Amino acid sequence: MQIGSYSTIFQEPLHCLEVFEEQQHLMNSGNDLKILKKAMKSFTSLQQVQILSVLGEKDNKLLDLAENYDEWDYVDCRWIPACQHAVETMIQALDYGRPPVYSFVSPRMSPQSLLRLSPEVQELGMSTWSQLTYLKLNFSHMSDRDTNQTQLESKIVLLSEFFKTVFSTAKNLMELHIGFFPSSPLELQLEEVFHDTFWPKLRILGVEAWRLTSAEIIAIIQRHGTTLRGLRLANIVLREGSLWRDVVVETRALDLEWLSLDDIDYELEFDRKSRERPTYIFPDTSDESENGAGSDYSSVGFGFNISLDGSTSSHAGESSNISTSSHHSSSQESHINQSSGTYSPTTSHSQNGGEQDNFAGPSSSGTGGNTDPVHLIPTGVIERPGMNGKGVMLANGSNRFDEQLSDMSINLEDDGNIVTELQMVHWERWAVGRDVYTGRKYSRDL
Q1: H/E stretch holding 394
Q2: What are the pLDDT digits (tens) for 353-379?
Q3: What is the C-alpha to C-alpha distance for residues 85 and 96, in angstroms, rounded to an integer?
Q4: I want to staple 344 with a disulfide (CB 3.0 to 4.6 A). Which of 5, 202, 354, 374 is the partner?
Q5: Which whole-number Å values give the CA distances from 438 to 174, 289, 358, 360, 402, in the listed order?
Q6: How far apart are CA 252 and CA 245, in angstroms?
Q7: Contact by Cβ (8 Å): 180, 139
């Protein structure tokens, strides 16, 4: 065995056993729930809850080592039962303490963990869902040993009633993001998750990694056309027979302040590129027991900003061990917004290498009785708005896209087969009618 960088693990061979026993004691004694309840009762101004998957350096190295073996019996770190336990305890604590939480985020939610929630816990969660104005869930895609539910689609279908209950309860949502893993877009109809729900205050909608028709996208944005001000369609793959041009034309009719089309594609082209792309093997995290200890081997971080009562806040993204299919670089650095003023929850990019520049986008008045200025444009990126660090990054002073977009000899027509990076920028600017960061009018025809 070539130990190499794993030598630190074997210098402390009881590390994993100690961690496991500590976790079991916390859960079996109920101390984690007791402490969370006390915290939720004490945090009378708590406004955001995140459920994240975290591993220490030694645990990461041990799981890296385990990947080299078909059979590995030495450590059993599983995210699914850990995620279930986290959701259950947090919902119970929130129901007990009733803090004014309006934002709920999980960048790697396990669908299996939601399926296992008891009806009693789901009922307790209703009070939390009803007060949310911001909800972001990205569902992890992983292999597992469960032969009856080997596909993400089957798990999401089983969650259909759960989604229906949550979305129908969360009527105060102003910002909603639902996403899946970019290399494996979900192959379900949009309304199998959203159930034709109408959110009267919805201002920002984001969907990621989905195989959809243009009609499905048009239907949901038309349903919220009077309130929608920001739209993110990331890694969306249009099915055969649909055209991105139809979607873009429809967005032009809305009063959008920004449109983000990160890595959109057509189904045939996406499948062709997928066949040429190296396959990533996800760790096996299923077949869990009642007492399984959970952890994260492949969490994906998504950075965003939320300002509370005029102050600034930041979210440090999780480290990622996954290389996505995107040709844009994904940044997991934390982003701190230095701009002044009060604004709603907004998405943001982080500059590569952790260096952030802040570009305050246009503001508009809030809805639903909120008259404070509301920033709808993500900060920290020069070009396309987005949410996971995959927007087009340009050096300061660069006008590469401006030069190409002004060249009328460059064909930007939608051929229904391939979407280029330049087309994404062109369609985003055309739909809004301007470069959202400079404010310059955009006059090139579609």
Answers
A1: none
A2: 333 332 222 333 333 344 333 334 443
A3: 17
A4: 374
A5: 26, 55, 13, 10, 12
A6: 11
A7: yes
